[in-house]
Amino acid sequence: MGANEKIVPAELAGPLDRAVRGLWGVSWGKARAWIEAGKVRVGREVVRDPTTRVTAGAGVAMDERAPRKGARAAAPVDIVHADAHVVVVSKPAGVSTVPYEESNVDTLEARVRGWLENKAGARGRGRPALGIVHRLDKETSGLVVFTRSWLAKQSLSSQFRHHTVHRRYLAIAHGDVRARTIRSFLMEDRGDGLRGSARGTPPSSAREAITHVERIEALEGATLVGCRLETGRTHQIRIHLSEGGHPIVGERVYVRGYAGPVIEAPRLMLHAAELGFVHPATEREMRWELPMPDDMRAVLERLRV
To answer: What is the pTM of this model?
Structure first.
C-alpha cells in the first residue's frame, strides 16, 4: 500500500466522492474537484468520475501534486430528447447503463452527465441531477430515459411500478416463433444458478412477468419478433424467449438446453425500439421510436430468406 493510499471501510463503500470525502475529511465539492482533476486513484487507475462505485477494501490514493490535465472530452452520446425534467437517450450496444463495478467508468449515465455538464458549462461545479428509473443490459441497444428533477423521478418511478410505460423491443430469436403472451413468475435462481421462471407454486420472492410476443418476419432458422413488456423484470425477454425454446440470437447466458443450430451474431440481437410515457410536468403522452442499429440490421439481412 502506498504512503498516501487509504483503504475504503464498509461504511464508505459506494460512490467514490463519498469515500474520498470520508477518508480525507473534506467537503463534497473538494472531493469531487480532486477526482475530476485526476488526483485520485483507485488501485492503479486514475478515476475522474465521482459517481464511480468503490467496494470495501479498495485502495484509494490522493495526490494533490498530480498535474491537472485538461478536462476529458465527454464520450459521445445520442440524445433523442432533453428538457428540464427528462433526458431520452439512444444507448449503443456494449455500454452499461450504470456502473456495476468500480472499474466501469464509461457508462451511459456518465456520458449523459458529461453531456449535461458541457451543455451547461458546469464542469467542476458539481454533478447535474440525474435519476435512474430503468436499465438496459450492456449488449442491448435502444431507448433509455433518465430523470432530471424530483417530480420526474417520482412520476416515472410510479409509471414503471404500475406498468403504464410503453416499451416495445425488437429481437431476432432462434427458430419459428409464434405470437403469444408469456406469463410466468421469475426468480433469481431457477435451480441451475440462472434467473428463470418458477415451476409449480412460485415462492413469495418470485415476481410476475408478462411479455407480449408479436411475430414480424420469418427468417432462415430464426424469427424477427416484437416484444411488448407489460412488466419489466431483469432479463425478462431473454428468459421468456429462451424458456420457450427460442433463445435470442447472440445469447450467451440463457442457452442451456437449446439443441438447435446456433446462429452467430456479434452481440445479443435485442433492441429497445419504442418508449413512451406521460410527461411528468406537461402530463402529455410522449413516445419515441428508434430504428434497429446497423449491426442488428446486418444480421437480419443475412438471415432473410
So the answer is: 0.75
